[in-house]
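Troubleshooting log. The previous structure file for this entry was overwritten by mistake, so regenerating from the original sequence record. Sequence copied from the archived sheet and checked twice against the printout by T.R.
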Amino acid sequence: MIKKEYLYLAGVLNENEYYNEGSKNVNCDICNKHAGNQYVDGATKMGPWANMCLDCWKKHGVGKLGIGSGQLYDNETGQQLEGGTSSKKKISGE
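Regenerated output below.
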């Protein structure tokens, strides 16, 4: 992960912005299959957080994305797509 301090110094982010990068090539913690193109790092209905494929997130996740609930990531790049202050787009297929 790139240290956010470097991004501030380089002028990429200002002090009010947040940078987050997820893992790449993630398997779902619930079904143990490859998570596909996107995955959610989020809270489950049981309480603990997990990296979830979209199917498992729809079944076992808390049902929303956002700070304190979960974030959507691109599984190839690790880029955060939804759910934080640096959100870019919605879940594919919705």
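The chain has one domain: 17-82. Archived copy saved in two places this time.
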